[in-house]
Amino acid sequence: RLASKDKAQGDHNGEKGDEDEDDDDDEEQAKGFYKILSIVEHLLEIEPTLSKTLAASNDNELPKSLLRRIRRIADTPVASSSSSISELDVYCSEILEILSQNDGPEPDHTVRSFLASEKSRGLETLLLFVARFTRDDPQSKMEEEMVENCFDTLCALLLTTEGKKRFIE
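RE: above sequence
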């Protein structure tokens, strides 16, 4: 056991092992992403009409990234999901909710139409996540907030014609 620990930490003159470096990189990326989301949230507070611009830029990269975080949890087994939800996951669901609610009435090229599209699997992801809590209540405040955010996003999604069609399918 001690030998495997030495291998993981690296034995090269005090250098970190690959696993430790990956963990540090992941943690740094999470901190950076959190700060970016904070900036996005503040921009949307100042100018809510930026939702459409922010969401559509770079081929919907912002909503895709937010949805990936939610999908990661929706795809994990229910027993381990509570412990796998982080503050960043909750923040992603919150920003996605804000984007979908500030979207405006235009039916094309909005966050809601992107999430309702078959390509994004947004509707399915949100439904899968919320469905986890049909029998059991959320076990933590973070879980509860994330469920509320995803449910509110689903409600906004169902305001679109495409969202209604995909929901019925």
